[in-house]
Amino acid sequence: MFIYRCPVPSSWLDFNGHMNVIPYFEVFCSASNLAGRDLGLGLSYLDEGYSIFSGDIHITYVREVRAGATLTVRTRILDIDIKRFVFHQEMIDDRDGALAATAEHLQLNVGVASRKVEPFRADVLERLRKAQREQGGSVPRNVGRAATLTSGAPAR
What we know:
The chain is α+β, with helices and mostly antiparallel strands. It has helices at residues 21-38, 43-47, 122-134, and strands spanning 2-7, 50-61, 70-80, 84-93, 98-111.
């Protein structure tokens, strides 16, 4: 599991006094980038001729976040195949430990020269699988949620 922490500045607030949707996306993406770097999928991976592209992202907003909060994002690998993996993230409001939002990112392994989705090298795939095995933690909340009128309230 990968941990990222950040404060919530007042510039992230909208007219309702809570965090706007754009900072949620930015925080989740920053945490995803840091987790990717820690997995060896950052600039060094680019130098090796590969990059990770986002293929899909889904955010579930659970409760509002206000200025003065500090957020912790826990990122874990949910699923892997030979060309893709899914990050699952939980954004926690550190003031009371409550879940603020969750996100799922489909990450694609792309060849820099081809600009196409390509299989991971064997060592990278094993590194991802090892990280997934070792991450531990509780069962992720809001996995696979979709934007529908029938999906019900998100897990808190």
